[in-house]
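writing this on my phone so excuse typos. first protein, seq and then structure
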Amino acid sequence: MFSGIVEEAAPVVAIRADQGNIHLTMRCSFVNELKIDQSVAHNGVCLTVVSKTDDTYTVTAIQETLERSNLGKLQVGDLVNLERSMLMNGRLDGHIVQGHVDQTAVCTAVDEADGSWYYTFTYQFNKELARQGYMTVEKGSVCVNGVSLTVCNSKDDSFQVAIIPYTHEHTNFCQIQPGTVVNLEFDIVGKYISKMMRYQ
């Protein structure tokens, strides 16, 4: 379980293919605090630490994960948003994030707004999935590349988010531009409500 508050945007230092899987090796400031079998969100995808060195750690993404997320598009040097699992004895600063990416979206516009930025994302709309809560709502929560954000200008197949300078500088939003593929996780609370409404 995560909160969508990114701890660090860290570089990929190695990628190794293994049949249908890939092994991603990351370098970050908190490697010495990690343990084997620990969960870490990578661009919003929950992956398990399988090995580590003094300054790097490695996780494995299977084919199912690669098909649903942007992890298969990563290259050495790309920045990845990292978040360790949420502590249950503190404040929930973002929203409840599972680390289970629903689908990808494409950035279609980045507009400067006098010190902040509006990012527009478009995703493949499916009416049946929308009935199950796979959608955005105005002022609702959405997780983009592991970042908890508030939705504005929600449409059937697109939405915008406003990015403040701190988020721009401390996550990989600094690398997102029109054409960039990002990971989406829709709000789990909305999914549960949508499912319950089907049985009314």
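second protein below, same order as before
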Amino acid sequence: MAVKTYSLKKDGATKLSPHFRVREFTCPDSDTVKIDPKLIAILERLYDYLGCSKIIITSGYRTPAYDRKVGGSGRGYHTEGRAADVNCWRGDSRIHGSEICCALQELGWHHGIGWIAGHAVHVDTRTARYWFDEQNGNRSIGGDWYAYMEEKGHHVPRLAKGDVDGDGKVTSTDARLALQAAVGKVTLTEKQAIAADQNGDGTVDSTDARQILQRAVKK
């Protein structure tokens, strides 16, 4: 899906998704706003996974001139409408960047993820995986944000496969939830769906439910 171009004046209030509007991605020196729909899609999934009360876009689209003004090259993904810097909130508290980066990994985001500093994270839709730590000048953190953040002193508990209801145990209740989701009787959150997807094929079906039940009864 191609990047879309909007006008702040005409389209600023337009809803891009349940939680985001065009005006949140604007550049201070332009009426033009470029936004990649794939960026909105991953931000919505992130919102659900983290149980956010809000996600604030601290920097979305940038003109080349503005990108240079804030220290960029004038040619980055922000200038193409394919990047956003975000702060995520749960209730009245900001979520630390370590948890956000790990959540994006769980969501299968094999594109751009950058830990800017503290609570701030960069997300972009480049085709190749590029996971970096801006505050420490690390252009490649490797293939596991959990391990990297642990090294930096930030422990983020890994998502427990099979624990669909999030109570810390794998039981028949988890298997029942997975089966109900498989037949369309319940809708799982992003985090629940990832926990329920035992074989990692991107869907929750009866096979996953059976595997969870086998784990619950120690088979």
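Helices lie at 8-11, 37-50, 64-69, 97-106, 145-151, 172-182, 190-196, 206-216. thats all i got for now
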